[in-house]
Amino acid sequence: MAISDERRHVLVGVTGGIAAYKTAELVSLLVKRGDVVTVAMTDAASRFIGQATLEALSGQRVYRDPWTTIDDPTSQHVSLAGRIDAMVVAPCSMHSLAKFASGNAADAVSLMVAAIDRSRVPVLLAPSMNSIMLAQPATQRNIEMLRSDGFEVLEPDTGWQACRADGCGRMPEPAAVLAAVDAAITRIQ
């Protein structure tokens, strides 16, 4: 497939959660339509999905360590943040929501999030967690704070969860996340 210079560059952050299997489909959908996709993942994410899977689907090296350079000997998080059209964190765990809300930039994903100028590049978060965790006051405060800080927080789906319960907290389906990325890029441009 020939790809033009007008391809969108999307950074996909993956945090720890069983919904990481859906991220593989999201990356595949983005690549199939011609986007350049770079993936960053937390150590917790690697407990749910393999780095090799995301590298094979994206055709790019995966960022796992904030201190190891992959494509740029300078500050790779700053360099990459300046080259993307959008970032989506899917799944976005309760822990990651708290890190982003507090400005903690200790892993590859949170460091990338911290380096993005959200007035120019949309950052979408797709929360995914047990319904009780989602309903926690701290989680709800973090979501509201992140929205007021300029993040786009996608509404979780309701349905069967890995904890064997039915409730709100499922990561939206990959096609819905893709549509949200497109809408966010259009709004910023």
Please tag this protein with its features.
alpha/beta, two-stranded antiparallel sheet, 40% helix, Rossmann fold, 189 residues
CATH superfamily: Flavin prenyltransferase-like
One letter per element, helices H and strands E, the order comes to EHEHEHEHHEHHEEEH
Uncertain ranges: none
Helix content: 40-55%
Taking the sheet with the most strands, its summary is: 6 strands, parallel
CATH architectural name:
3-Layer(aba) Sandwich
Strand order of the largest sheet: 3-2-1-4-5-6
The end-to-end span amounts to: 26 Å
Rough shape?
Answer: globular
Rg over C-alpha atoms, rounded to the nearest angstrom: 15 Å
Average pLDDT for all residues: 90
Please report the total strand number as a whole number.
8
What is the percentage of strand-forming residues? 15-25%
Query: What's the CATH class, please?
Result: Alpha Beta
Structure description:
40% of the residues lie in helices and 20% in strands. The chain is an alpha/beta fold and 189 residues long. The strands form two sheets. It has a six-stranded parallel beta sheet, sandwiched between helices. Strands 7-8 form a two-stranded antiparallel ribbon. Helix 2 (51-58) links the parallel strand 2 and strand 3 (62-63). Helix 1 runs parallel beside helix 2 (51-58) and helix 4 packs across helix 7. The mean pLDDT is 90.
What is the gist of this entry?
This protein is an alpha/beta fold and 189 residues long.
Question: What's the arrangement of secondary structure elements?
Answer:
Layout: E1 9-14, H1 20-32, E2 36-41, H2 51-58, E3 62-63, H3 76-81, E4 86-92, H4 94-102, H5 108-115, E5 123-127, H6 131-135, H7 137-148, E6 152-153, E7 157-160, E8 166-170, H8 174-188
Parallel strand pairs: 1-2, 1-4, 2-3, 4-5, 5-6
Antiparallel strand pairs: 7-8
Helix pairs in contact: 1-2, 1-8, 4-7
